Amino acid sequence: MISSGAIEQLRADVWDCHDHVSLLRAKLYRWGLGSDLQLQRLEVELEHAQQRLSDATARYSSDETNGRYAEVSESRRAPRPRLRNGEKPR
User: Fold this and answer.
1) pTM
2) Mean pLDDT, the chain, integer
3) Which of 1, 6, 22, 80 could form a disulfide with 69 if both were Cys (CB 3.0 to 4.6 A apart)?
4) Is the separation of the CB atoms in 15 and 50 below 8 Å?
5) pLDDT digit string (tens) for 22-33?
């Protein structure tokens, strides 16, 4: 289920990624350097964080209007750890 607390956490993640990108970009441009691999990786991470926030916000608002909260789809859940032969789940 998506809660308003989860939405706020996703917003914080987006701002954190945005800050990292901005700081590295400023550092690189200050020294006259172009884009580097780390900046590109951070930009991709920022895009993914923004997409997660957008998806969660859409699910939250559509389910809120229907009077219920969304369940996170199976594909978006964290993978379950694999158990070794004979091992019991914790």
Assistant:
1) 0.63
2) 79
3) 1
4) no
5) 999 999 988 888
2 φ, ψ to 5°? -100, 125
The Cα–Cα gap between 77 and 5 comes to: 17
For the chain, the DSSP string reads ---HHHHHHHHHHHHHHHHHHHHHHHHHHHTT----HHHHHHHHHHHHHHHHHHHHHHHHHHHHHTTSPPPPPGGGSPPPPPPPTTPPP-
Q: How far apart are CA 31 and CA 54, in angstroms?
A: 34
Asked if 17 and 44 count as a contact pair (C-beta separation under 8 A), the reply is no
Number of H helices, E strands in the chain: 2, 0
